[in-house]
Amino acid sequence: MAITFEVIHKDIAGRVGKLRVNGRTVRTPALLPVVNPHLPLVTPREMQEMGVEALITNAYIFRRSTEFCDKALAEGLHSVLDFDGTIMTDSGSFQLSVYGEVEVSNRETLEFQQAIGSDIIVPLDIPTPPDAGRERAARELATTMDRIREARELFPDANLAGPVQGGIFTDLREEAGRAVQDLGFSFCPVGAVVPLMENYRYQDLVEVVLAAKRGLSPATAVHLFGAGHPSMFALAVAMGCDLFDSAAYALFAREGRYITPHGSFKIDELAELPCPCKVCRSMTADELRRSEDRERLLALHNLYVTLAEIARIRQAVQDGTLWELVDERCRSHPRLLAGYRKLLAHATELEHYDNVSKRRFFYCGSESCRRTEVLRYHEVVPRIPIGERVLVSFDGREVPGFDTVLNFKPPFGPYPVELAETFPIGQSEVPEWDDDMVRSGCAGIRALMEAHPESRFAVRCGDVWAQLVLNEVPGAEVYHERV
């Protein structure tokens, strides 16, 4: 038996792929709803009818359950849960993070997960909290790695996950990723990140995930433990996460909270239900509030919305428009926007994963100037063949006496007319020019100048942009008569 992962489409570091486990296939990115057998607001069978291909349940809960333990051992998880898809089991690490200890050893939980027929088995890793010091993080990472190696030795043929720990220390996360990769794991969850998400520390989340990814192979399926709200899924996929598990659909329902792709609302405060799912189109907000089945109906809605967002992300990856979706979603909260900007700070790293050509480039503000497509263009612009005297024309009009005349399109910069229909020049939509995009385009001019010190450059830009060009492109002659 083995876990295999095939990448079909990619955009930024996000992938649409196929995770194959025990003869079953899961389309990724994928959500694994958390199922508690004692409190199922939505049954696994209903989930499967909604399109869920994999779920996660807690082996520790099953092991301690007088109602389900013997039944799971006798019949197997798939029969007990009435679910034909892929089932992943948590080892008890969640309880370890909440209570500080669990009454089970690594070997015991591994043996139990194997005995109940789990498709993906997780060792008892140590979830180091974000506020832990480096010494503790390193110590607990060492324990986690010992347990992962023990799991590999005890069950060499099992479908094991290799959790990546290390607290908020990026070098430890990268080291952990490399260590589990060296052990041959093809499915690696990034753990102990729930406190970061609960406290809206998306900047730290970006650093932690990208550090883990640096240690892992690009062929490894990456699971982000405990990522439950659809507003942050696009950001996480852009980082390279392929799977998520969430109990938010049920937890939020019990708290009377109504999930949307942009955030959550208290159902008691809603006058309308702004969602096309079957729950929201079958009743009013007041009827939902008053329903005796309110928690279950809210859970169904929350799960519909969450699954729809995953499908929307898969489509965006296939279309090459993930950046636009990330930009839209991350503007729903200032902390998400901070996480988005932190991701853009790693554009050089992400550019190695990203596609050379895409369907489109929509300019959505100053953040767009830092996207991978702009960075790549500035890297390749020096390849443009030019003569001794070069004019970069903002309005496309020429000035006599130049060997080479290039047009200008921000945020990319100079381009020859032959590239006018190619990506990204021809497939980019920009509004009225602003300072940020023109400044970014000037960086493209500078890159061309630095690659050709023997050439003399001039820029025809008109009065509006003259001073900015003079500041951003020192050494170039500027034509700035009114145009």
Q: What tags apply to this protein structure?
A:
single chain, 483 residues, alpha/beta, TIM Barrel, Rossmann fold, seven-stranded parallel sheet, five-stranded mixed sheet, 19 strands
Would you give an account of this structure?
The protein is α/β, with parallel strands linked by helices. It has two domains: 4-348, Queuine tRNA-ribosyltransferase-like (TIM Barrel); 367-480, Rossmann fold (3-Layer(aba) Sandwich). It contains 20 helices and 19 strands. A seven-stranded parallel sheet has the order 7-6-5-4-10-9-8. It has a five-stranded mixed sheet with strand order 16-15-14-18-19. Strands 1-2-3 form a three-stranded antiparallel sheet. The N and C termini lie far apart (69 Å).
Give the SSE map:
Blueprint: E1 3-11, E2 14-21, E3 24-28, E4 30-35, H1 44-49, E5 54-58, H2 59-64, H3 69-75, H4 77-81, E6 86-90, H5 93-99, H6 106-115, E7 120-121, H7 134-154, H8 170-182, E8 187-190, H9 194-198, H10 202-215, E9 221-224, H11 233-239, E10 243-246, H12 248-254, E11 257-260, E12 263-266, H13 285-290, H14 294-319, H15 322-330, H16 334-344, H17 347-350, E13 361-362, H18 372-380, E14 389-393, E15 404-409, E16 413-415, E17 428-429, H19 435-451, E18 456-460, H20 462-472, E19 477-479
Parallel strand pairs: 4-5, 4-10, 5-6, 6-7, 8-9, 9-10, 13-17, 14-15, 14-18, 18-19
Antiparallel strand pairs: 1-2, 2-3, 11-12, 15-16
Helix pairs in contact: 7-8, 8-10, 10-16, 12-14, 15-16, 18-19, 19-20
